[in-house]
Amino acid sequence: MNTAAKNPYEDLPKSAFWRSGVADVSPFSISELWSPKHKLSKKKKIVTAGSCFAQHIGRALAKNGYSWFDAEPAPQMFDPAISKEFNYGVFSFRTGNIYTATALKQWVYWALGKEEQPTEAWEKDGRFYDPFRPAIEPGGFSSAEEMLESRAATLAAIRRAITEGDRFVFTLGLTEGWVNTKQKYTYAMCPGTLAGTFDPAAHAFKNFSFSEIKSDLIAALRAIREENPQMSFLLTVSPVPLTATASGDHVLTATTYSKSVLRAVAGEVKEKFAYVDYFPSYEIITSPVFRGMFYEPNMRSVHPDGVSFVMRSFFEGLGATDSDGGSDSETPKAKARAGKRKKAARTPAPASEADDGENDVVCEEMMLETFGNK
After folding, report:
1. Where are the chain's structural domains?
2. pLDDT tens-digit profile of 329-347?
3. Which of 152, 167, 188, 190 has the fewest CB atoms within 10 Å, i.e. the most exposed one?
4. How confident is residue 322, by pLDDT bands cut at 50, 70 and 90?
5. Residues 6+ apart with CB under 8 A from 256
6. H-run or E-run covering 67
7. Distance CA 157, CA 70 (A)
8. Are strands 127-129 and 122-124 parallel, antiparallel or unpaired?
9. Between 224 and 63, residue with greater pLDDT
């Protein structure tokens, strides 16, 4: 009698094999991409921060009746257009995009009083800009004092989000950044781009390593948990390629390196801590099975149908398949649109058309594109 035990692959589900889970099904029918660690009640306060793509998650959560936490709401006299212009309601607090784990740790430590915030201000044409959120105030501030008062309000909002929030969604965007070599803090953007003056003696490019990113991310999450032991985290990686790189590599290979490191960090941190989860928005958009169909013709911006497909997978994982998060992705109409986008991707579009997908998100890094139009 044969008493040999089954090998570990014999009872695996279809989703564990490339042929049955991917190759033999329609791309629009691929499912079971995420099995969440934690349930997400619509009553729980959800904090969002990070790279540009995190904005889509916050909007979809609010649209589907979840409690997206706006810890720094716009003044009541602001209409929606003015609120967006002044970067209210973009993330849970008015930091602008937080592209790196180091910047997240920096904001958390400042907000919780673990580190002293810098007083550096960038000046341009008599106006003052915050080096850590230079695009937050259109036209800048009237003085450095006004800038610091505004930042104090944001730090208070971060403290509120940390102490009152239930789930913190953070989208990792970049490994590249710029640091002050004397004071050791990291900037939101390279000095001399949006504002300020670049000083080679004081400003240095930094491509953060796996170990540095992992260490800073864990430090930020632990600091938040010390303040609020009930907080859990959901990490994602932005599928949006780099606008530009200062690494010396081609922007394509620099993007691959950056996203690979961030994905590896997110995976390891998720495995290490029970209170940390990971959602594969990056894989859904960039996987070869989708043949780039979720990108705009510029091959960088994510088309709204791509965002809808990502969010459909998100709500399916939560058990909310009927949510208004893009459940039409399998319809013939959506498939036809995807086919048209794939065809259009072969033909370069005018800049005004290619950038349409970025118009509804705030993305400071996109401003680097102006330095390449020569």
Report:
1. 38-281, 287-359
2. 343 444 444 454 444 333 3
3. 152
4. very low
5. none
6. strand 67-68
7. 9
8. antiparallel
9. 224
Q: Mind giving me the DSSP string for 167-182?
A: EEEEEE--SEEEEETT
Which tokens sit at 155?
A: 């730090």
Which three-class secondary structure string do you get for 85-129?
A: HCCCCCCCCCCCCCCCHHHHHHHHHHHCCCCCCCCCCEEECCEEE
SS3 329: coil
* Alpha helices (H) in the chain, listed in sequence order: 18, 54-63, 80-85, 101-111, 144-164, 210-227, 251-272, 281-286, 304-317, 332-344, 351-354
In the structure, what pLDDT confidence band is assigned to residue 293 with cuts at 50, 70 and 90?
A: very high
Cα gap 166→162, rounded to integer Å: 8
* CA-closest candidate to residue 309, choices 291, 289, 282, 284: 284
Residue 124 CB: number of other CB atoms within 10 A? Answer: 15
Q: What type of residue is 261?
A: V
Residue with the bigger pLDDT between 374 and 240: it is 240
In degrees and rounded to multiples of 5, residue 282 shows phi and psi of -60, -50
- Amino acid code (one letter) for 92: S
pTM of the model: 0.87
Q: Can you give the C-alpha Rg of the chain in angstroms?
A: 21
DSSP 21: I
Q: Tell me: the pLDDT tens digits for 95-138?
A: 999 999 999 999 999 999 999 999 999 999 999 999 999 999 99
The CA–CA distances, whole Å, from 5 to 11, 13, 42 equal 12, 18, 45
Residue 162 CA to residue 179 CA, distance in Å, equals 26
pLDDT in tens, 106-117: 999 999 999 999
C-alpha 257/C-alpha 253 separation (Å) is 6
Q: What integer pLDDT is reported at residue 245 of this predicted model? A: 97
* Beta-carbon contacts of residue 54 (< 8 Å; ≥ 6 apart): 48, 91, 169, 170, 171, 236, 238
